[in-house]
Amino acid sequence: IPSVSSIVPESCLLIVVGLLVGGLIKGVGEKPPILKSEIFFLFLLPPIILDAGYFLPLRQFTENLGTILIFAVVGTLWNAFFLGGLMYAVCQIGGTGLNHIGLLANLLFGSIISAVDPVAVLAVFEEIHINELLHILVFGESLLNDAVTVVLYHLFEEFANFEQVTIIDIILGFLSFFVVSLGGVFVGVIYGVIAAFTSRFTSHIRVIEPLFVFLYSYMAYLSAELFHLSGIMALIASGVVMRPYVEANISHKSHTTIKYFLKMWSSVSETLIFIFLGVSTVAGHHYWNWTFVISTLLFCLIARVLGVLGLTWFINKFRIVKLTPKDQFIIAYGGLRGAIAFSLCYLLDYEHFNMRDMFLTAIITVIFFTVFVQGMTIRPLVDLLAVKKKQESKRSINEEIHTQFLDHLLTGIEDICGHYGHHHWKDKLNRFNKKYVKKCLIAGERSKEPQLIAFYHKMEMKQAIEMVESGGIAKIPSAVSTVSMQNIQPKILPVERALPALSKDKEEEIRKILRNNLQKTRQRLRSYNRHTLVADPYEEAWNQMLLRRQKVRQMEQKMNNYLTVPAHKVDSPTMSRARIGSDPLAYEPKADSENLPIITIDPASPQSPESVDLANEELKGSGHVSSSPEEEEEEEGLVMRPKEPSSPGTDDVFTPGASDSPSNQRMLRCLSDPGPRPEPEEGEPFIPKGQ
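Above: the chain sequence. Below: its structure as tokens.
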């Protein structure tokens, strides 16, 4: 019924089914089954967590890890102590009938009810298609707060049996948090590496490849639970560590099997959990206390809102992408409680906690309120607030190249600044992984394959499967039917292919280019740090040499372009002509140019200045030998120099100089022209023939 499922989340409908089944069993006179904690923790919870950990969006998770940890650790501790303390205060009020419940019992209750439930969050958030940032923040918090919940639960359970709690017990309890969380991660990483190493040798028995993934993951969970470590953290760590190496080793069929089996297994577990919650509500023993139940519900909501607002104010000081008020509202509103709280409460011993039934009743009320009221209203609120939804887009090679390029760029910027952020450490980890880990855990040539090529292969395979599923490629007939069809029907021209076919050589050439140019960018560069940057002693000498070479080249260019050194550097030939035309007396030969050969040019003759034989003209000269090389260099050729600036009050244009004879003017005009290239608009020659 689409109209119902679009309004009511699947988890709510399953709880309703459970309530109906439980009521039916009770109506018949039988005793309904109750969700036992051993069954829940050993068989129903692991598939959901493994599915979440194995297919965890690792990039978004690592980029927001700091925010997730603050919400998961600090937020859960705040909820537990705030709720436990206020509930103890309520219990101490006279006339409520709750005076017998002590502080430790209330703190234990607070630790059970404070944790956000991953099963409930997954069930609701996957249906509303919220954007990746909010999804990973709420879901990541629900996964990682397990360590805090486990520590607080076992801590207060043990403290309740003590006659007196000392400071040493509290310090040990605080240290046990690190042991439980980091110990769980360590166990998960060990089993993940073992699973990846095992998958290296399964090429001849493809059938049992998926079994190793499930087997080692489940062993990681059981090993962690055996030592009272965080089983959820162990499952997530093993899934995240093994996935890249296992997928490189196993066949595509095994990968498909793992994917669909995990999805099926987790959805079955989720269905059973919510149905059993409904059945257990009908079957369980309840003790209703209005004060306790309403106070629990109210303080849960208040603690969640205050915790999110306070922590976000602190987190936004360090985040580049700030969490907006809309985001904060969705994070606070998405703090759903579920079956983990119910099962933890069910584990409590009657002898030490005779108020267990009242705790269970309050927890079931909170679960129903969060799943039904918040779960049903979160979708309309997301639409109302216009919160950004998830964009369904396929990743392309272009996006992958630019992502890698930006990662390298940001790492380089961090190296230069001397600030070692998460890009720096991520790059170090990637290089270590490529250099050592991949060689040990991935079989054959795939270990040396660059990330971009591997991504291309994955996309190619995915595209081929989609084409086959959509009927883009017709089914290939068998050999017999092909032959018979050829005999019966005439040969049909092949249909034009959707994708251009590449030859083997071309494909290998493309791969070689990608390998050489895209993957080794950082290995060619040295990492610089502004604090340790030392000046190169040879740098100044190199700069001087380069400047000298540049000057020599410029001089050579000038000598090639002009017969003599130009009068003015900036002026173009056209400007020079115009300047000399307006002021023919501005240039004159050197004062000591009596010994230089004089070239007389007849303007009527076709001989251009370029065709003058200077060697003959030198032989015709007076044979003067210079005494030093410097004088030779200075007096070589014809040299023009600008006229000395005139004294103020004299007219530059109309006052004739000492050497302003017509022959001198004619020669200067000829030599100042770089070549016979008249401008398009000039019809007449520069020197009139009649002059």
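The mean pLDDT is 77.
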